[in-house]
Amino acid sequence: MRILLTNDDGIHATGIAVLARVAERFGEVWVVAPDTERSGVSHAITLFKPLRLKQIQPRWFACDGTPTDCIYLALHQMQIAPDLVLSGVNAGPNLAHDVLYSGTVSGALEGAHWGVPSLAISHCNSKETDIAALEPMLGEILTTLLPTALELGGALNVNLPSVHRAPYAGIAVTSLGRRYYSNEVIERNDPRGQPYYWIGGAKVTMPDLEGSDCNAIRDNLISVTPLGDDLTRHASVSRAAELLAHHGMRPATTASAPDPGA
Ligand code: MN
Fold first, then answer.
1. How far apart are the CA of 239 and the centre of ligand 1, in A?
2. How many Å apart are CA 227 and CA 99, to the nearest integer?
3. What is the distance between the alpha carbons of residues 216 and 196, in angstroms, rounded to a whole number?
4. pLDDT score of 259
5. In the chain, what are the domains?
6. Distance from the CA of 249 to the CA of which of 115, 194, 197, 259 falls in 20 to 30 A?
7. Distance from Cα 8 to the centre of ligand 1, integer Å
8. How far is the CA of 190 from the centre of ligand 1 (A)?
């Protein structure tokens, strides 16, 4: 089996080194990952500057683009033809709304988009030394996750509780919950007297939602969420058509129901 790895913390992050070492027990590992941290770049692709690949060791390539660029080049330029894509191990959780910001999750979604079963793996603790401590447990976890991902196809978003909480209470299949960061904006002045801003609050609240990824992590369970890339809000389709007609423009067609296999 050939396994393609990427991440959004950069090719020199501890998480990808740990994941690569463990993944080697399951197949031939190829790494195409950003040369520096790209956390929070979501599913961005680079269209207006050239991309470069630099081999740093056999089958390891650093790319000066996003995780999506990495998967795109790996599949369509380097012809790696992986059986499986692994993205991570991310330093920090990717729960609920995080999946829309996450470069780690987008690496997996890009793999799934091109038909390759994919897993995003995140550790709900961002300390590099703690991610290193995951390594002895990760083999057993991947023994369960990899064949599941291969049979299921698509993308799986996996969150691991902090290694400090091991042994974990078990594993749960979840749906995305709700997660709210505090919305503070910090304003400071640069050395030339101009204001600048830091966004992204650190304080997080997670409402108690049964079956959610957030609840699973709260309960010390490994959370596994199957992800799709259909962002259509199907529950609003007919009401949107009604409203458009009511306000003067009858839609020519109305979206059909979602493909249950999607
Ligand atoms: Mn990251």
1. 38
2. 9
3. 37
4. 63
5. 2-178+207-231 (3.40.1210.10), 234-262 (no CATH)
6. 259
7. 5
8. 26
Alpha carbon of 70 to ligand 1 centroid (Å): 15
Describe the crossing of helices 67-76 and 103-113 by its angle, rounded to 10 degrees. Answer: 30
CB–CB of 213/225 below 8 Å? Answer: yes
Distance CA 130, CA 116 (A): 30
Place of tokens 């529950």: 235
Give residue 234 CA to ligand 1 midpoint distance, Å: 30
Return averaged pLDDT per consecutive 10 residues of the chain, 262 residues in all.
Answer: 98 98 98 97 98 98 98 98 98 97 98 98 96 97 98 98 97 96 90 94 89 98 96 95 95 74 53
Q: What distance in angstroms lies between residue 101's CA and the mean position of ligand 1's atoms?
A: 10
pTM for the predicted model, two decimal places: 0.94
Q: How far is the CA of 89 from the centre of ligand 1 (A)?
A: 8
Ligand 1 centroid to residue 250 C-alpha, Å = 44
- Please provide residue 175's backbone torsions phi and psi, each rounded to the nearest 5 degrees: -115, 165
**What are the φ/ψ torsions at residue 14 (nearest 5 degrees)?**
-60, -40
7 CB contacts (<8 Å, ≥6 apart)?
13, 15, 16, 19, 33, 34, 67, 87, 88, 89, 90, 103, 104, 107
Q: How far apart are CA 18 and CA 38, in angstroms?
A: 18
